[in-house]
Amino acid sequence: MLKQILSEMYIDPDLLAELNEEQKQILFFKMREEQIRRWKEREAAMEKQESLPVKPRPKKDNSKSVHWKLGADKEVWVWVMGEHHLDKPYDVICDEILAERARLKAEQETAELRRARWDSRARGGIQFLESSPF
User: Fold this and answer.
1) Range(s) of the domain holding residue 15
2) Does residue 70 form part of some domain?
3) What tens digit of pLDDT does each residue of 83-117 get?
């Protein structure tokens, strides 16, 4: 009966009620010993598993990977914006990016307007060469 209780780590409440205090204390002590024994077994198994060499996963044909650039100290090389005397401040970089985006958008809008004018002239029967001052 004790083996079954220790293997399941459960005792029926009715059976527990029938035990006297000394038997309950012995049972709880044995259950705690069993818990500790199982914990030690799991810890040993985990340590054994961690000590085994890790098997590399098989590479896929189209696998992608990242290789970090290493510095002189063999650590990952890091560049912090603004630390070098030739670096532009963050605000200037952002302003340049926004200006470039605005320029590209203006070019696109201009091209669309030219296309729209060309289409409207072609639909109206007016040839572009006749209305051109050149």
Assistant:
1) 2-51
2) no
3) 788 888 888 999 999 999 999 999 999 999 999 88
